[in-house]
Amino acid sequence: MSFLKKLFGNSPKIMDWREFTEYFARQGKEALGGGSEIEWGKSLEDTTVILTPPDQIEYRSYLGNLYAEYKKLAEQEKKIVFGGRLGEYKYYDMDAVIASALDMCDKELA
């Protein structure tokens, strides 16, 4: 069974950053068998997920910081266009990803 099918069942949906963070914390807690805590910020960039396995040191995941770092690196590239699900760091239904790609082509080739 695919990851997306496990995550959403038969009806995929777009998650906002809060839902994604809660899901990430829940999955981490289940995988490690310990605790999880979310330090909420105003956006993904300043929200932290803290995972604490039993009898071990805590792990802090800065999901938005990683995205922000990748975004800065991508903006420095002048001859590469990042798009689609991975390039925009979003979950898209297929019709939306095609529309996004066409919009990006219009913008880049104009």
Report on this structure.
It is a single chain. A 3-stranded antiparallel β-sheet has the order 1-2-3, with helices on one face. The longest helix is centred in the first third of the chain and has 16 residues. With 110 residues, it is mostly helical. It starts with a helix and ends with a helix. 51% of the residues lie in helices and 12% in strands.
Summarize the structure.
The chain has 110 residues and is mainly alpha-helical. The protein contains 5 helices and 3 strands, in the order ααβββααα.
Tags for this model:
110 residues, 3-stranded antiparallel sheet, mainly alpha, single chain
Q: How do the strands and helices of this protein lay out in sequence?
A:
Layout: H1 3-8, H2 17-32, E1 35-39, E2 48-52, E3 59-61, H3 63-76, H4 84-87, H5 94-109
Antiparallel strand pairs: 1-2, 2-3
Biggest sheet features: 3 strands, antiparallel
Task: State the end-to-end distance.
Answer: 42 Å
Work out the strand percent. 5-15%
Helix content: 40-55%
